[in-house]
C-alpha cells in the first residue's frame, strides 16, 4: 500500500467518524427534543420519554448512517441488526443513567443520549454495516432467525429478569414468609417446611401455595432462577402443545408475542402468584401435549417412562388447583374417544393420578374451611337464581375486562388456522378446557382474573400457532408482524420496569422505616403509608395488593416481629 493510499484511508476513516458524530449529534438532538416534549406535555416517566425519543431518532439515524456514513444499502436485515444494537445500548444507557444522576430528569435524558453514540459506533462499523457476501436467501428472512435475531429474545429475557430482580415483597408475600437475617439456607428451608405444613393444615393446601412459601423463604437468587426457568418452560410448552413441529421458530414467536397479549403480568412478577399459579400450571403439559393428537397418545401408550413421569406431574397438578383437573380429565377422555383410543387402559393411568391429586386437595380440612370462609364472606347462595345469574355476569365481565385482547387475538388466529388447515380435531379439542375452566369460576364466590390461567395458556397457544402459520404462508409480511410484536414487547417491558421500579421504591422505603424501628428496639409501633400507583396502571401491568397489606397488619407484624400500624 502506498503512503498516499494509507493517508487517504486514514482521512476517510476520520471523515466517517466525523460524519457519524454529526449524524449522531442530530439524532441526539431529536432524541432529547422529543423526550423533553414528551415529559412536558404527556408524562414525566423517564423511561417512556426515552423510548419515544429513541424510536423517532432511530428512524432518522438508521437511514442517515446507512447512506451518509457507512455508504451501505438499506435492507430489512441491516435495519433489524441496527435496531437490536440501538435497543441494547438504550437499555444499558438507561441503567447507567439511573445510577449516575438522580435529581433532574432532563439531565438524565442527556446522559442517556450521550452514552448511546459512544457504545454503538464500532459495533455498527464491524457488524451491522459489515460488507456481506451476496445471499439472496437472506431477503426471505426465514432461515436466519436464530443467526441475526438472537439479540431480540435475549433482550426480552434480560428485561424480564431485570424486572423480577427489583420487585419487592408485596401483598400476600408477607403472609407466607418472615424476615430472615443471617439464617443459612438449611435453616430457612426447615422454617419453610414447618410453615408449609401449618398452611396446609389451617388455610390452603394447594401445592402452589406450599411452593411459594419455600421459594419466598430461600435466597432471592434462587427465586430469580426458578422464575427465569418458568418463562422458558412456558414458552416451550406453548410452542408444542397444538402441533409439535417447528419448535424453534414458534418459541421465537411466542417469546416476542407473550407480553403483548398476556392479560396480567402478576403471574410473572408477583412472587406468590409466580410460584403459586404459573409454576404449578406448567405441570399441565403432559395432558395438553399427549392427549391432543393421535400420534402422541400412541407414543404415551407405548412408553412406560413417559407414563410414569406424566402420572407424577399430573398428580401434582391435581393437588394444585380446584378447577383444572376436572376440566383436563374431561378433555382427555373426549380426545381418547374421538381418536378411538378409549380401550387403551394405560392412557387412563395419568388421568387417575391427576384426579387423585385433585380429590386429596378437595378432601383436605383446610380446603373446606377456606371454601366456607369465602362463602360466608361473600354471602354465596347457589339456590338463589339471581345470585347464580350475578356470578355468571361477574365472570363474563372480569374475563373480558382482563382477557379481551388475548381472546380477540386467539379468535382471529383460530379462524385463520381453520381456513389454512381445516377444522381438525387438534384445533377443536383445546376449546373444551377453555370453556370448562372459565365456566367453573361461576362456582367460586368471587372472580380473580388469574383463575383463568389455563385458558390464557391455551388461547395463547392458538395465537402462536396462528402467527407461525401466517409467517410460513406470508414470509415477508410475517417477518414485519413478528418484528412489530418484539418492538411492542420491548416497550411494554420497559414500561413495566418503570412501574415496578417506582412501586419498589415506595415499598423499600416503607420496609426500611420498619427496619430502622426494629433496630431501635421496636418499642413503639411503626406507622406505614399506602403505596400509590401514581399513573393508575391497569391490571395488565401490576396488581397492587396494598389493600391486603393494610388490611392484614397482624400478618405484617408477624413477618417483621414488630408491631406495624397505619397512619390515622
Briefly, what is this?
The chain has 568 residues and is mainly α.
Note down, in words, how this protein is organized.
- This protein has helices at 3-41, 46-69, 76-100, 105-128, 145-148, 151-166, 185-202, 207-217, 220-240, 247-261, 266-269, 271-281, 285-290, 294-302, 304-318, 324-338, 348-363, 365-377, 385-421, 425-428, 431-440, 453-473, 475-519, 546-551, 553-560, and strands spanning 526-528, 564-566.
- Helix 8 (207-217) crosses helix 12.
- The chain has two domains: 3-132, no CATH class; 166-495, no CATH class.
- The protein has 25 helices and two strands.
- With 568 residues, it is mostly helical.
- Mean pLDDT is 84; it is low at 132-148.
- The longest helix is centred in the last third of the chain and has 45 residues, at 475-519.
- The protein starts with a helix and ends with a strand.
- The chain has a two-stranded parallel sheet with strand order 1-2.
Topology readout:
Layout: H1 3-41, H2 46-69, H3 76-100, H4 105-128, H5 145-148, H6 151-166, H7 185-202, H8 207-217, H9 220-240, H10 247-261, H11 266-269, H12 271-281, H13 285-290, H14 294-302, H15 304-318, H16 324-338, H17 348-363, H18 365-377, H19 385-421, H20 425-428, H21 431-440, H22 453-473, H23 475-519, E1 526-528, H24 546-551, H25 553-560, E2 564-566
Parallel strand pairs: 1-2
